[in-house]
Amino acid sequence: MTAQANTALAAEILEVPHAEAAAVIRDSRPLRLITCGSVDDGKSTLIGRLLWDTKAVKEDQAATLRRDSGQQNDLGLPDFALLLDGLQAEREQGITIDVAYRYFATDRRSFIVADTPGHEQYTRNMATGASTADLAILLVDARAGLLEQTRRHATIASLMGIKQFVLAVNKFDLVAYDRAVFDQISTDFKALALSLGVRQVTAIPMSALKGENVVYSARSVIPWYEGPTLVETLELATLRSGQSTGFRLPVQRVSRPGESFRGYQGTVAGGAVKPGDSVAILPSGQVANVKQIVTFDLVRNAAVSGDAITLVLDRQVDVARGDMIVSLDAQPQTGLAFDAQIVALQPDGIVPGKRYWLKAGSRRQRVQVEPVQQLDLKSGKWQSADMLQMNAIGKVHLSFDETAIFDPYELNRGTGAFILIDPDTNNTVAGGMITAKRTELGGLNAHEGRVILSLPADLAEQLLATELLANRRDEVETRRVTTSAARQLLDDIDG
C-alpha cells in the first residue's frame, strides 16, 4: 500500500481522542467488552494483567496465583492467564475453551470483560461472548501480524454489531518496540476494519505480561507512542444504545394467579413503556393500552430495556408465549421471508433445503435456510455458496411457515438475533442476525407444495390424531389466530 493510500486510510478511521482525566466523574453503567484473536496472542494474560493492576485480585487469589505460577517466565512475574483459565483442561493445555467473565473497576467506571477462546473449534463460544459486548479488544502477536483467526474474530464481532475496536499489538517487547512493525499491523487492521464497516479503532502497542500500556503508560520504553493506554481507552468508550427501536416485550409467560389478574411477563428488549401507552400484540395485530407495570416487589411508573416486568393491559386480548408486545407507532417487521447473516457452529454445517427450528427470544418457528454467499476470510470477499461448513460466515435467505417478527439486528440486538436448532439432534447449529425483510416469497409453501388449512379447533385435533398424521406430527404447525392475523398471513403470501 502506498504512502498516499495510507494517508487516505488514516483519514477515514476515527481515532479516539486521548483526553486527560480532569475531575473524576464516575459512569455507573458497566462497559461490556471481549478479548479475541488467535491462539497464543495473549488474551488471558491481558485480562489477568488488567485485574492485577486495577487491584481486582484479592490477597488469597494473589497468593494462590504466585504458588501455581511456577517458573512460567524468566521475568519473575506471575502467570496472569491462570486468573482466567478456570477449567482443568484449560490449565493443562494453556488455552481458553469456555467464555470466562470477570469484573473490574477504575475510579471512572466499571467493566465486565469476557475472555473468549482463540481456537477455531470454539468459535461458537467467541460468538456468544461478542453477542453482549459494547467493545472488542482484538489481540495480535507483534511477531506474527494479522492471522486468519484474527480476521474471523473481527468479522464475527462486527456482525454482532460491535463498532468499537481496540487493536492490541501485544508482545511488543519481543520486536524491540519497533515502530515500523506497529505501523504496518495498524495499517493492515484498519483496512480490514473499514471493509467491515468499523470506523472506531484505537491501536495500542503493549506488553500484557509486563503491563506496558495496559493500565500504566510505557512512555519510558515506547517514547514515540503518544496515545492512550488500554484502560484510558476503555474509560472513554461508549455503550451501545438499546433505544433505537420502539418498545419490545417478547412474552415469556402469561401470569394468571387468579380471576382478577392477567399479566404478560418478559424482559423488555428495547425502548420504554409507561401506563397509558398504546401497544400492539404481534402477530395478531390486536391493540390495547398499558394499564399497569408490575415487578416482583412494586408497581412501576415506567419500564426500559433490560427490565423484567409483568405488563397488565386494559382489556382482554389473546396473548400467548412467543407473541411480542410492541409500540403501536414503532412496530418491528413481520413477514414470511427474511435475509440474515449466520455463523455455522456444528460439524455438519448448514444443509440447504433442510428444515430447522429458529428460536428468537421466546418464539420458536420452523424455517428453511437457503445459503447464498460465504465470506472468504483470506480475501475478505463474499463468494457464492450452496452450503455452509462449520465456522463459516454466510448470508442466507430464511423462509417461514408462519409470520415471523424481527427488527434488523443493527437496530435491536434483542429482537434481531436468533439461533438455529437441528430438530434431529437438538443441537444449536448456527447463530444469526437479521439484516432485512425479503420482499419476495421464497418459502416452504412455494417450494414444497405445503398448504395452510384453516380448520375449527376440534376438527384439527381429530385430524392430527389420525394415524396418517401421527407419524408426521413434527411437520405440522398449529396456532390459534384471529381474523386479522389470518388476513395478515394472506397479505404476506401475496407478497
From TrEMBL:
Its EC number is 2.7.7.4. Coiled coil: none annotated. PROSITE patterns: G_TR_1, G_TR_2. Residues 28-242 form the Tr-type G domain. It catalyses: sulfate + ATP + H(+) = adenosine 5'-phosphosulfate + diphosphate. The keyword Transferase applies. InterPro entries: CysN_GTP-bd, CysN_II, CysN_NoDQ_III, G_TR_CS, GTP-eEF1A_C, P-loop_NTPase, SO4_adenylTrfase_lsu, T_Tr_GTP-bd_dom. It holds the Pfam family GTP_EFTU. It comes from the Bacteria. With CysD forms the ATP sulfurylase (ATPS) that catalyzes the adenylation of sulfate producing adenosine 5'-phosphosulfate (APS) and diphosphate, the first enzymatic step in sulfur assimilation pathway. APS synthesis involves the formation of a high-energy phosphoric-sulfuric acid anhydride bond driven by GTP hydrolysis by CysN coupled to ATP hydrolysis by CysD. Belongs to the TRAFAC class translation factor GTPase superfamily. Classic translation factor GTPase family. CysN/NodQ subfamily. PANTHER family: TRANSLATION FACTOR. Heterodimer composed of CysD, the smaller subunit, and CysN. This is Sulfate adenylyltransferase subunit 1. The lineage of its organism: Bacteria, Pseudomonadati, Pseudomonadota, Alphaproteobacteria, Hyphomicrobiales.
